[in-house]
Amino acid sequence: MKFKYLARNKEGELQGGFVDAAGRDGAANILTGHELFVLSLESADKKRITEKVFSFLNRVKAIDVMVFTRQFATLLESEVPLSDSIRALYKQTKNPLFKEAIFEISADIDAGLSLSQALGRQNHIFSEFYLNMIRSAEVTARLKEAMIFLADYMEKEVGLRMKIKNALIYPAFIIVLFLAVAVIILTGVFPKLAPVFEEMNVRLPLLTKILLNSGGFILEWWWLIIIIGWLFIGLMIDYFRTPEGKIVFSELIIRTPVFGDLFKKNYVARFAESLSVLIKGGIPLSQSLEITGRVIGNEIYAGIIEEIAEKVKAGESLSSLLSQNEYYFPALVGQMVSIGENTGRLDEILLKVAAFFTREVENVVNNLTELIQPVLITVIGILVGLLFAAILLPIYNLTQGLRI
Fold this sequence. Notes:
This protein is mostly helical. Among the domains are: 58 residues; 94 residues, Type II secretion system (T2SS), domain F (Receptor-associated Protein, Up-down Bundle), CATH 1.20.81.30. Helix content is 78%, strand content 5%. It is built from 18 helices and three strands. The chain has a three-stranded antiparallel β-sheet, sandwiched between helices. Strand 1 and strand 2 form a beta hairpin. It is flat, with a radius of gyration of 29 Å. It starts with a strand and ends with a helix.
């Protein structure tokens, strides 16, 4: 079995890592034999099995990294030493996967690695943008300022995502509720009406026939529908994880009515702010563009920014290249970047561009429910009308036949 330990040596220095042993007592004896005073000893194998089973619940989320970054920035502001800050964060973190990652970061720092190197070994948690900010801060001795910026940046990003999700809760709830009612009507109401209509020889409209057959199909083959549904969802998820699927999904996002414009503005804001910070940190423009493309979160934008980075290396100006991609970068971006290039204040101008598009995104998000609600009510109203028409038309025909 593998055990994770935290211990102090004879000099009082903190050490951490993993040890293999047949049991907990054996692991403790091995560590004691190496003249280590054991502070904590946990089974790593048991934890890994749990994480595999519940990985979808225990994954490290953006909000976990955001809280970690804010707490880290606060500790550094309070002049707490780096190693002590990491240990304090280890104790405060609840997510088991993230807790183990922080433990490994602490052990790496105690072993002599820099903070950026230790975080870089956990690059499945920390983005390349995050890591490059830390590397730049270590070179310029401005780690505290970098952590404060990253905390502010991540809070803004997470806050915007939460706003978008909250704005979509109401429409999603209405759609799910309608689908549930539709299934109940198709499987509960229509099958009971069908024998009545057949007995009275009522001529059924085409819409009623379609819905009656649909209800019967759902009742008889519901298990097959569930299996096919799960297979379809699984295949789509697997496809969208492939390089080609990521490109298709990214294109779908920015081409979607209403939401496409929202996401484009968000990507432009993220591009401008990330690029500004990297340039300000002393990273060359072409390299800053490459990093920004990898962390922007959309494959289409990543490809375009990568091409721009290559052309910038060849000597072309950033503003002219952005102006050539006006569908993805509005004309305002190219114009503002041109001013920044001419005045030598590109990082400041990019921050202003980021602030402008961030406000645009927030305005759209704040009005999102109001924008969607009329369309949603119209569509749901039409569908509800069709459902009731399918029931009422045969009943009307039946009453007409009885009068005759």
